[in-house]
Specification:
Number of helices: 6
Strand order of the largest sheet: 1-3-2-4
Oligomer: single chain
Distance between the termini: 29 Å
Number of strands: 6
Length: about 160
């Protein structure tokens, strides 16, 4: 299934995956910030959310849908940004097999188990980086868009072309 998406900017694709129970609209404030910094920001609705909330399907395969959508959009190489690890558990950990650069971030005021979960996720994905987002809690991107975009853009800027 090709997922609904919003995008802004040109350059290296940065794919934004939303938290539950929201949808791609959580990234509306981030799209112009990332586009101004020279990246192509792409926000997707994951299956069961936003404009695909009512989709009737026998099997939900979020990573297959994400990859099909990115292929459709011509984004064959991308950096992934998102909230929590919800999509990791849906289809057997398919994200772990993607050769995708990853930066894990947690809000400074989030619960302690999310700091631990961030470290575990970072290790599982082989990224080795956890960014602490100042003055933010659990939904750091919504609470502090600039604080979310700054380490993301720094990370993307350090990646090989």
């Amino acid at each position: 299934m090709i997922l609904p998406s919003d995008e802004a900017g040109q350059g290296r694709p940065v794919v934004l995956l939303h938290a539950r129970p929201v949808d791609r609209t959580m990234w509306r404030g981030h799209l112009p910030l990332l586009a101004q910094a020279g990246v192509r920001a792409i926000a997707l609705d994951l299956p069961g959310h936003g404009d695909v909330a009512a989709a009737q399907r026998a099997e939900v395969a979020p990573w297959a849908d994400v990859l099909d959508t990115l292929d459709h959009l011509g984004a064959d190489r991308f950096t992934l940004a998102g909230v929590a690890a919800d999509p990791l558990t849906k289809d057997g950990g398919a994200l772990r097999t993607l050769p995708t650069p990853t930066l894990v971030g947690v809000g400074e005021f989030d619960m302690p188990d999310f700091f631990e979960g961030g470290a575990v996720l970072s290790n599982e994905l082989g990224s080795g980086e956890v960014a602490v987002l100042a003055d933010a809690g659990h939904l750091a991107p919504l609470e502090q868009p600039e604080a979310f975009c700054a380490p993301l853009l720094d990370f993307v800027g350090r990646l090989p072309a």
